[in-house]
Amino acid sequence: MGGLDNSSTMFWIDTHCHLDAAEFDADRTPAREQARAQGVGCCVIPAVEVANFQAVRQLAHAHRDAYALGIHPLYTPQASLEDIEHLDHALQAHHADTRLVAVGEVGLDGFVPTLNTPSAWATQEHLYRAQLRLAQQHQLPVILHVRRSADKLLKGLRDIPVQGGIAHAFNGSLQQAKAFLALGFKLGFGGALTFERALQLRRLATELPLSAIVLETDAPDIPPHWLYATAKQRSAGQAQGRNTPAELPRIAQVLADLRGIALAELAHASRANALAALPRLQFIL
To answer: CB neighbours of 225 closer than 8 A, spacing ≥ 6?
Structure first.
């Protein structure tokens, strides 16, 4: 891999960062300022449940960032019809807030066993479709959680068309990728592609047109390989490294090297792609 260019002179958008997570409680502002010093000029902070709607909004305003409101599939077991009503009211109340850029994080999770019983899956689908309808009603794009669920997510989007958005942490097939692109979505890539063994993901990240790609960290989750501790290392007492938005330029360098392009070219393209996926970003950058 080539050396890291002077990325602090570039403008990066982390299209998916959970800056409100408890892992940042001790140093949230320093962590965000460290990322800004690395050129990460904007983070998109998606909500995961009604309880953190206010937190992500306040953080976005405090750090000159953006936010999304939605109910994450992992939080659907405790969600209710009242939560959908609360989301509807919040989207209406903050419609004029240009830092509100999407409905998210929403979607379907086909990986967690407890979410894949017949009743739990039915709840996931019901809330996913209800949130697509709200995105349609409020004319906002969506930020999608895609984990072993791409085909079912696509079916929902065909039934309830929305104004595009981002398929976060995409790791599906090329065919599925093209289907999301055809529906106006960009695909989010982050720390997972830094692992040499991620052959399929790396192939996808190089075969897709550059116009398809946005960058993200999913901080504090999905750490890049230089922060990752294996199960054996963790059992020996080594702590798992915390991902932060400051890692985005280094992740980007890996992708630039894989594609054989200059880091500056990737910075320019990924910013343009983020603006295309989340048009309200243009009002705050």
So the answer is: 191, 194, 195, 196
Query: What angle do helix axes 81-93 and 118-137 make, rounded to 10 degrees?
Result: 20
The domain locations on the chain are 12-283
> What letter represents residue 4's amino acid?
L
Locus of tokens 């997510």: 153
CA atoms within 13 A on the CB side of 248: 39
Give this prediction's pTM. 0.95
DSSP letter assigned to residue 178: H
Cα gap 170→201, rounded to integer Å: 8
Which long-range contacts does 75-78 make (Cβ < 8 Å, 24+ apart)?
Answer: 75/48, 75/49, 76/115, 76/120, 76/123, 76/124, 76/127, 77/114, 77/115, 77/120, 77/123, 78/49
Cα–Cα dist 70/105, whole Å:
5
Q: Per residue in 87-126, pLDDT tens?
A: 999 999 999 999 999 999 999 999 999 999 999 999 999 9
Q: What superfamily in CATH does domain 12-283 come from?
A: Metal-dependent hydrolases (3.20.20.140)
For strands 100-109 and 66-69, give the pairing: parallel
Q: Which amino acid is it at 137?
A: Q
| Closest of 105, 92, 109 to residue 131, by C-alpha | 105
